[in-house]
Amino acid sequence: MKIHHFISKDFDLDKPKISVDDFALVRQIRDVLRLQPGEEIILGNGVGTQAHALIVEMKKKTLEAEIIKKETNVSDLNINIKLYCAILKRDNFEWVVQKATEIGVGEIIPVVTKRTIKTNLNLERLEKITNEAAEQSGRGILPTIQKPMDFEDALEEARQNKINVFFDAGGEDFEKVKVKMTKKESIGLFIGPEGGWEEEEVTLIKKKKIKIVSLGKLTFRAETAAIVATYIASKIEAA
């Protein structure tokens, strides 16, 4: 039987009992999942620790749970994938956030490129999407959603990564690129907008000597490329 998993940065797992006062979460547990006192749930704090807990009391707007055991969630990747994704249409970008979270992305950085049209992202909604996707996939660590960055600012921020790769049709196949990383090091993935990168953006990448790679012979939509690239990066073995 599946044990339902919930994540909140507000959960204090050092206490023997936890009071859940997030009404939306309480309503989900009570009215949607129809869980009852005596049933077990898993509560995660979003930074890698989780606890098995028993529901001991259910009220209209709150829930009380008693900790059974606390443990480290070991489902997350041992490298940090940073997805620098050009801002896409709202539904497409939200889909990228959801699926990249399920795969194991560590950070998502929305990037404003030459071809970006709209930049009014709802960061609060995106954080909710990551929370739900992390719960669904059993993750212990919530990805970080950064504020949108201009392309050049994103390149500057990416200097701290162990390696960065820039996806463009003319590059070497990403799956054939040998990447050596150790645990907790970051790899940056740059995904362009609908219609692709502008030539001056590609030129800037070449000047900075960032590796240009492709996802094979087929041409993907931007949101598809973001997910395929994230999945391939998730298979990198850390030494």
Explained architecture:
The chain contains 6 helices and 12 strands. The protein folds into 2 domains: 5-72, Hypothetical PUA domain-like, domain 1 (Ribosomal Protein L25, Chain P), CATH 2.40.240; 80-234, Alpha/beta knot (3-Layer(aba) Sandwich). The chain is α/β, with parallel strands linked by helices and 239 residues long. The protein is elongated, with a radius of gyration of 20 Å. Strands 6, 7, 8, 9, 10, 11 and 12 form a 7-stranded parallel sheet that branches. Strands 1-3-4-5-2 form a 5-stranded mixed sheet. Helix 2 runs parallel beside helix 3 (123-137) and helix 2 (90-103) packs parallel to helix 6 (222-234).
Summary keywords:
single chain, 239 residues, alpha/beta, Ribosomal Protein L25, Chain P, Alpha/beta knot, 2 domains, 7-stranded parallel β-sheet, 5-stranded mixed β-sheet, 12 strands, 28% helix
Q: Short description, anyone?
A:
This protein has 239 residues and is of the alpha/beta class.
Radius of gyration: 20 Å
The CATH topology label of the largest domain is Alpha/beta knot
Ends apart, CA distance between termini: 35 Å
Number of domains: 2
What is the C-level CATH assignment of the largest domain? Alpha Beta
Oligomer: single chain
Care to count the β-strands?
12
Poorly predicted runs are none
Major sheet summary line: 7 strands, parallel
Q: Any guess at the CATH architecture of the largest domain?
A: 3-Layer(aba) Sandwich
Query: Which range best describes the helical content: under 10%, 10-25%, 25-40%, 40-55%, 55-70% or over 70%?
Result: 25-40%
Averaged pLDDT? 93
CATH superfamily of the largest domain: SPOUT methyltransferase, trefoil knot domain
